[in-house]
Amino acid sequence: MQEHPQANSETAPADAAQSAPPRPAPVIENPPAPKPATAGWKGHLLQFVLMFLAIFFGFLADNLREARADKLREKKYIRSIINDLKADTAKLTDNILYCERLLDGQDSALAMLYTQYDKAENADFFHFLGAFRTIPIFVYNDATIGQLKNSGGFLSIGSEAAKDSIMLYDAWVKQVLINETIMSQILRTTESSIAAVFNLGYFRKDAAAGRLIPAAFAPTRHDHILSDDRRKWAELYNQLLNHQAFLNVLRRQRVDIRQKATNLIGFLEKEYRIS
Predict the structure, then answer these.
(1) What's the rounded Cα separation, in Å, for the pair 147 and 168?
(2) What's the angle, vertex CA 234, arms to CA 103 and CA 200, rounded to 5?
(3) Which are the contacts of 231, defined by CB distance < 8 A and separation ≥ 6?
(4) Is residue 254 part of a domain?
(5) What digits encode the pLDDT tens for the residues 108-142?
(6) Is residue 222 part of a domain?
(7) How many angstroms separate the CA atoms of 103 and 94, rounded?
(8) Is 257 part of a structural domain of the chain?
(9) What domain range includes position 233?
């Protein structure tokens, strides 16, 4: 009976040790990470340089794309101008030939004016006199040049030599068109001078018979002449000479413009390597 308390006193520390809560494991902190080599002002400088280069090359790429697009647009305009110039040269060739036919007819009319106008065979005279009753009209094909002027597209023409040549050609043509307007005024004056002397009914054509003057209008005596006033005849002759001289000026100008158009086509094709 006396040994039980001793046994209890021996087992009590063991029971207390088993019932005590476990102690937490010690926490081992990681050592601080070493600072990167780019830390500090050198690292910030490197980052700034890299960012600057990225932005710079981005702008450079955009500029290269825009420059390429501008070059393509410029070449498109030049091709269109060349096509317009080729159309001009074709129309000018027809115009020049028409001028030459009119001038030949006018020479014949002037030669016959005081010799055959009062004879029965004056149908030829009236035929040639018709050369004074019309003028050649040149329709300038300036669609592309007009578009460039109105839209500011000339800024996209990089070659100053090409730009100057195109503008100079346009100015030359505009001068020809001004003279063509003057020629129209001369034509109206010529019409009035002819009408004051001749019966214009003799200018009618007989399409069925293929004759210039219908048989119903065949001249009898001097019915085709409205005036014997020598002053009117002199004024008519002077007006016809003036008319012919100015038409000859227009013909020479058209020849000159056609050559300028041909030269400009060759220059633009060489400048922009267009075949």
Answers:
(1) 16
(2) 65
(3) none
(4) yes
(5) 999 888 775 555 456 677 778 889 989 999 999 98
(6) yes
(7) 14
(8) yes
(9) 66-271
